[in-house]
Write a structure and sequence with these properties.
heterodimer, A: alpha+beta, 29 helices, B: alpha/beta, seven-stranded mixed beta sheet, 7 strands, 32% helix, disordered C terminus
Chain lengths: 713, 213
C-alpha cells in the first residue's frame, strides 16, 4: 500500500485542491475507549485536515476488469471531509499503548483516531506527534501525558465558544465566537460570552490584556432581581395589559390556582410591561418619562384603584409597585437638574433581564463600569471592600444619587462594616460609597422637597455586628416607616410585606432598592451624540486626572501596566466602551437601525475630536473599527449612501486616517495644534508612546506651516 | 470504479436546511435526524447511470454557516452542478436564496446547472414557503425546482439525477467543454482518448496518477 494515497487523490479527482500533503497515515477511527468505528486516512496539508476512506462497492462477478489509466490505489478511495485546520484542534491522546490522536472540532465534535498501518508505525507516530506539536505548539508537555483526557484537550487552536443568531439585513445568521482553549475555564467563558460582540473576534486577546483582568465570578441571575409574584390570580382579569412587551417575568409560586388554571409551570415566563396598563413605553426606557407633579399623584391614585378592585389575596399590585418605585426615583431625580447625568446611568450596573435568546448589551456596559473598579482589591484588610464581587456588580450605580452626601461618606473611615452595596462612580476607585448613603441622598432630597418630618433615615452608627442588610432593616423597620408612608400612604405595611416568600421582614426601602435594581434599561438610542460625547469626556477626564506622574514613572520603569491601576483603568474603560459600542450596534438587527446608530457614534467621535478629546475619540473609533463592525460591509455601504448627506463617512474616514497611529505626523500635528488651546484630553496611547520614546521627534516648525489649513478644517 | 464522466456537485444553502441529510440520503440511503454542524466541506460520491453511461457524482457538502462562508466560496470553483437548498419550514432560508445564488454565480462558471431544492417536504404542517413561490423563484432565475424530503427520501434521487441529466445534456449539446477542468467535469479513464493526443488541453495531465484530466 502506498504511503501517499491522499496526496494522489488530491492530485487526481480532487484537483481543485492544490495543497501538498505534509503527512498522511492510515488511522482507525475509534470511540474514546478505543472501540473501532471505521478506517480512515488522515492527511495534513498546510491549511487543511483531510479525511479519506475506502468505499468498496459490492462485488459483482464478471464486472471485474482492468481499466487502464486508473490508479488501483485510489480507485475506491474517496474523501470524507476536509476541515480547515483552524477549526480543528489536534492533540495526542495516548493511553497506555494506544497511539491515538484526538481531534476536537470547533463545533465541539470530538473524534479519536488510532494510528494504523503496519509499516514503520513508530516512525509515523513520532512524525504525527511532531506535526501535532507543530500545529499546537502551546501544549507540548501536557499533550504527551498519559493520564487524563483533560490534559490532552489543551491546544492552541480555536474553539467554538459560543454561537449566536444574528439577523443582518433581515437574514438570520449564526455567528460563532471562537476562542482559545484556556477560556474553557468556566469563569472566563461566562465572561467571554458576556462581553461578546457577536463575531469571531478578540477571543484570544482576552488573555493578552495587560491587565490583571478578573472576570466576575458569580454573576447574579435575573431571578435574583425579579419580582416574585406571590399570587398572580388577580392579575388574570384586571391587569391583562401588564402582560405585554417588556421584561420576562418569572413566576415562582407553585400550585397556585391561577397557574393550574392557565396551565403554567414554575419555569414558564410571561411578559410584563413595567409601566403598567395603558402606559405607552414609547421612549424605550423609563428614565426619560417626564414626571411632573401631576403624574405621580395621578398614577398613585390609579394604583390604589387597581388595588381596590383586586382580590384580597393580592392586596398590592406588584408591577404597579415596581412602576411606582421607578417613578419615585425618576421624579426626585428629575427635580434636581444638577443630578441629570445620563451616561452614568448608561454605565450603571443596571439589571436588564436577560432574554432567552438575545443577550443584554448592558452587561458590557455594566462591566465597563464595574470592572474598572473591582479589578483588584487592596491587600490591606482595612481598605478591602467589605462586599463580594457579586454584590458589587449587582448594584445600581448612580453617581448623581449621592452628590449631596459626598461630605459624609467619601472617606474610607466612614465605610460601614456590614455588607453594603456600592455604587460605581469615577472616584470610587479610592473612595467607595455605600448604597445606603446614596439612597439616603434620595431620602433627604425627598424630605426637603415634601417637607416631611425627618427621622427615618438617620445615619446609623450602632456597633452591633449584624451580618446582613436584611437584619439591619428588620430591626429598624419601625423607624423607616415614615418615609414610605408618605410615599405609599396606608399601604406601606402591605408594601413591606409584599414578598413573604423570600424576605418576609423586608423593609419598604429595601423593597424599593430591589425594584429599582430590577428595571432599568437605557440604550444608546436614548442619548444624542452630544450627550454621549460630553459624558464620555467627563468620565475620561476623571479617569485621566487620577493618573499621577509617579504612576507614569512606574509605567516607564517597569514597562508594564501591572502596577499602574489608573492607567489600566483608562485603558480598561476605553476597551469596554469600544466593546459596548460594537455590541450596541450589533444588537439592532436591521441594517437601517445599525447604520443610524453607527452614524450617531461617528458623530460622537467627531464631537469628541472637536472638543479636543483625543482619548474618547480614539475609544469610539476603535469601537467602530472593531472587526465586528468592520465586517458589516452592507451597513457601511448603507451609511455611505444614506448618511452621506451629513458627510459622516467623510468625517469618519478623515478621523480614521488621523487616528490610525499616534506616531503618524498628521496625528502629532493635529495634537500639537489642538493642545494649544486648553482644555484638551490626550490619548493615553499617545502619552505612553511618547514616554517610551516611540514617537519620532517632529520639528515644531513643520507643524507651524499648515496651521491655517488645519484650522479651516 | 471506472466511469465515463465525473461531475462535481456542490450543495449550498443556509445552515440547518438539511444539506448533509440530503447527501446522506443520496449516498447511504439513510436518514440521520441528529447531525453535527458541518465544518469545512464533506464529501460523498455515488455512481449513477445515465444513457447507459456510468457517471460518478462527486458531491461537496458545504458548511452553511455564515462563519464558513468565505471557505465555502472557494469550493464553488469547478462545480458542474449546484444544489441550492432551502427549508420550506423556514421562510428566512428562502429569503437568503438570492445571496447564495449571487455567490454561486459569481464564484463558479456560468454554465453551472443550479437546482433549487425545497427540503423537508414531509413537514407539510409547518410549511412556510409555498411550492408555487419556489417554482416562481426558480423560473425567475432559470433554475430547476424540486421539493424533496431527506427524511422520507422523496425526490432525493431525482434531484441529483435530474441535475446530472441536465449536465449530461449540456455536454451532448457541447455547452460544456469537457476538456476544460474548470467546468467541474472530468472524463473517466477509459473515455479519454482525447487526453493523450491533445496535450495542450490536458494541462499537467501527464504527471498525474489516474490520468483523468
Amino acid at each position: 500500500m502506498s504511503v501517499n494515497r491522499v496526496q494522489k487523490l488530491l492530485f487526481s479527482e480532487y484537483c481543485d485542491f492544490e495543497d501538498m500533503v505534509l503527512i498522511e497515515s492510515p488511522f482507525a477511527q475509534t470511540t474514546k475507549e478505543g472501540k473501532g468505528i471505521r478506517q480512515v486516512h488522515i492527511g495534513i496539508t498546510p491549511s487543511k485536515l483531510v479525511l479519506a476512506t475506502d468505499i468498496l462497492p459490492p462485488v459483482e462477478f464478471g464486472t471485474c476488469k482492468y481499466t487502464p489509466g486508473v490508479d488501483p490505489e485510489i480507485e475506491t478511495f474517496e474523501l470524507i471531509a476536509i476541515y480547515p485546520v483552524e477549526c480543528v484542534n489536534l492533540s495526542v491522546y495516548r493511553r497506555k499503548q494506544r497511539q491515538a490522536l484526538k481531534a476536537r472540532f470547533c463545533n465541539n465534535k470530538v473524534l479519536y483516531f488510532e494510528l494504523g498501518g503496519f509499516e514503520k508505525r513508530g516512525m509515523f507516530w513520532n512524525l504525527w506527534c511532531e506535526k501535532v506539536k507543530f500545529l499546537c505548539p502551546g501544549d507540548t508537555a501536557s499533550s504527551r501525558s498519559e493520564t487524563s483526557v483533560a490534559t490532552s484537550t489543551t491546544g492552541s487552536t480555536l474553539y467554538l465558544l459560543d454561537k449566536k443568531l444574528v439577523a443582518v439585513n433581515g437574514m438570520k445568521q449564526l455567528w460563532c465566537k471562537f476562542g482559545p482553549n484556556a477560556v474553557f475555564d468556566s469563569n472566563l467563558i461566562s465572561d467571554v460570552i458576556d462581553g461578546r460582540i457577536g463575531a469571531c473576534t478578540w477571543g484570544k486577546n482576552f488573555n493578552d490584556l495587560p491587565l490583571e483582568y478578573k472576570p466576575v465570578v458569580d454573576r447574579p441571575t435575573a431571578d435574583d432581581f425579579l419580582l416574585r409574584k406571590s399570587n398572580p390570580s388577580s392579575n388574570a382579569g384586571k391587569n391583562r395589559g401588564f402582560f405585554r412587551a417588556g421584561k420576562n417575568y418569572v413566576s415562582r409560586k407553585k400550585s397556585s390556582p391561577y397557574f393550574q388554571e392557565k396551565g403554567l409551570n414554575i419555569s414558564d415566563t410571561v411578559q410584563i410591561n413595567r409601566f403598567g396598563s395603558g402606559v405607552n413605553e414609547g421612549c424605550g426606557t423609563g428614565l426619560y418619562l417626564t414626571v411632573d407633579d401631576y403624574v405621580i399623584p395621578h398614577r398613585y391614585s390609579q394604583t390604589f384603584s387597581v388595588n381596590e378592585i383586586s382580590d384580597h389575596d393580592l392586596p398590592v399590585n406588584y408591577p404597579q409597585l415596581a412602576e411606582n418605585a421607578v417613578l419615585i426615583w425618576e421624579f426626585y431625580r428629575a427635580t434636581d437638574p444638577n443630578k441629570y447625568n445620563p451616561l452614568p446611568a448608561l454605565l450603571m450596573r443596571v439589571w436588564a433581564v436577560e432574554c432567552a435568546t438575545g443577550f443584554s448589551v448592558f452587561r458590557t456596559g455594566q462591566r465597563a463600569a464595574s470592572e474598572v473598579n473591582i479589578r483588584s482589591q487592596p491587600l490591606e484588610p482595612g481598605l478591602r471592600l467589605p462586599v463580594s464581587k457579586k454584590q458589587l456588580v449587582a448594584t445600581v450605580s448612580c453617581h448623581f444619587l449621592g452628590n449631596k452626601t459626598n461630605s459624609k461618606s467619601n472617606s474610607i473611615i466612614n465605610a460601614p462594616r456590614r455588607p453594603v452595596i456600592y455604587f460605581w462612580t469615577p472616584d470610587y476607585w479610592y473612595r467607595p460609597k455605600s448604597a445606603k448613603d446614596s439612597y439616603e441622598g434620595v431620602a433627604e432630597t425627598h424630605e426637603k422637597d415634601s417637607r416631611l418630618p425627618r427621622g427615618s433615615f438617620k445615619k446609623r452608627r450602632d456597633t452591633d455586628e449584624e451580618s446582613t442588610d436584611e437584619r439591619y432593616f428588620k430591626r429598624n423597620r419601625k423607624r423607616k416607616q415614615g418615609f414610605i408612608h408618605s410615599m405609599f400612604g396606608t399601604r406601606a405595611q402591605e408594601i413591606s410585606d409584599l414578598d413573604p416568600q423570600r424576605q418576609p421582614q423586608e423593609s419598604p426601602m429595601a423593597y424599593i432598592k430591589r425594584t429599582l435594581k430590577a428595571d432599568l434599561t437605557v440604550t444608546a438610542w436614548d442619548f444624542d451624540s452630544t450627550t454621549l460625547a460630553e459624558q464620555l469626556t467627563m468620565i475620561d477626564k476623571e479617569l485621566f486626572l487620577k493618573i499621577s506622574s509617579d504612576e507614569l514613572a512606574t509605567l516607564v520603569w517597569q514597562q508594564s501596566a501591572k502596577n499602574t491601576p489608573n492607567v489600566s483603568a483608562v485603558i480598561a474603560f476605553s476597551h469596554r466602551i469600544s466593546c459596548l459600542i460594537a455590541s450596541e450596534v450589533l444588537k439592532d438587527e436591521s441594517e437601517r437601525a445599525r447604520a443610524r446608530l453607527m452614524a450617531r457614534f461617528i458623530n460622537v467621535a467627531d464631537k469628541c475630536h472637536r472638543i479636543s478629546n483625543f482619548q474618547s475619540c480614539r475609544t469610539v473609533l476603535s469601537g467602530l473599527q472593531s472587526p465586528a463592525m468592520y465586517r458589516l460591509r452592507r451597513t457601511w455601504a448603507y451609511i455611505r449612501k444614506k448618511h452621506a448627506s451629513k458627510y459622516q463617512v467623510t468625517i469618519f474616514e478623515h478621523l480614521c486616517r488621523l487616528y490610525r497611529d499616534p506616531r503618524m505626523p498628521t496625528y502629532q500635528k493635529t495634537f500639537y495644534i489642538m493642545s494649544k488651546n486648553t482644555p484638551f484630553l490626550p490619548y493615553i496611547g499617545d502619552i505612553i508612546a511618547k514616554l517610551l520614546n516611540k514617537i519620532p521627534e517632529y520639528q515644531i516648525q513643520t507643524f507651524r506651516r499648515p496651521i491655517s489649513r488645519q484650522s479651516s478644517i | 470504479m471506472s466511469y465515463a464522466y465525473l461531475f462535481k456537485y456542490i450543495i449550498i444553502g443556509d445552515t440547518g436546511v438539511g444539506k448533509s441529510c440530503l447527501l446522506l440520503q443520496f449516498t447511504d440511503k439513510r436518514f440521520q435526524p441528529v447531525h453535527d454542524l458541518t465544518i469545512g466541506v464533506e464529501f460523498g460520491a455515488r455512481m449513477i447511470t445515465i444513457d447507459s453511461k456510468q457517471i460518478k457524482l462527486q458531491i461537496w457538502d458545504t458548511a452553511g454557516q455564515e462563519a464558513f462562508r468565505s471557505i465555502t466560496r472557494s469550493y464553488y470553483r469547478g462545480a458542474a452542478g449546484a444544489l441550492l437548498v432551502y427549508d420550506i419550514t423556514r421562510r428566512e432560508t428562502f429569503n437568503h436564496l438570492t445571496t447564495w445564488l449571487d455567490d454561486a454565480r459569481q464564484h463558479s462558471n456560468s454554465n453551472m446547472v443550479i437546482m433549487l431544492i425545497g427540503n423537508k417536504s414531509d413537514l407539510e404542517s409547518r410549511r412556510e414557503v409555498k411550492k408555487e413561490e419556489g417554482e416562481a423563484f426558480a423560473r425567475e432565475h432559470g433554475l430547476v425546482f424540486m421539493e424533496t424530503s431527506a427524511k422520507t427520501a422523496a425526490n432525493v434521487e431525482e434531484a441529483f439525477i435530474n441535475t446530472a441529466k441536465e449536465i449530461y445534456e449540456k455536454i451532448q449539446e457541447g455547452v460544456f467543454d469537457i476538456n476544460n477542468e474548470a467546468n467541474g467535469i472530468k472524463i473517466g479513464p477509459q473515455h479519454s482518448p482525447t487526453n493523450p493526443s491533445l496535450p495542450g488541453t490536458g494541462g499537467a495531465g501527464g504527471s498525474q496518477g489516474s490520468g483523468c484530466c
